[in-house]
Amino acid sequence: MRIQEINPYYEEFTDTGYARIKDILIYRKGASLERFTEDALDEMLENRETVDKLFDKDEIMEMWMEETSKEKAIRG
Predict the structure, then answer these.
(1) CA atoms lying within 13 Å on the CB side of residue 63
(2) Which of 13, 56, 64, 65 has its CA 20 to 30 A from that of 76?
(3) Cβ–Cβ under 8 Å, residues 27 and 12
(4) How many CB atoms lie within 10 A of CB 29?
């Protein structure tokens, strides 16, 4: 990677204590990854195939009928 490409990842790392570069997560020892996991789950819930793997059909129907938000689904 060129230095210009690294800068956004460095800024994210210094701001949050972690940075994700493609499929690699770099994090500071002791950093809270709570925000990262929430963001990752939010992305996963945007993908229909992932939702199908995370929840069975009855759970999906129940969430749809109860108008469950993504935030509530993430928190379980």
Answers:
(1) 19
(2) 13
(3) no
(4) 5
Cβ-based neighbours of 21, under 8 Å, separated by 6 or more: 9
- 10 touches 19 (CB < 8 A): yes
Residue-wise pLDDT for 47-71, tens only, equals 888 888 888 888 888 888 998 877 7
Q: What is the pLDDT of residue 36?
A: 86
Domain ranges of the chain: 1-30, 33-76
Torsion-angle region of residue 59: left (phi > 0), alpha (psi -120 to 50) or beta? alpha
CA quadruple 46, 49, 53, 58: dihedral sign: positive
| List of long-range contacts for 36-40, beta carbons under 8 Å, 24+ apart | 38/74
Q: Which residue has the tokens 């800068």?
A: 7
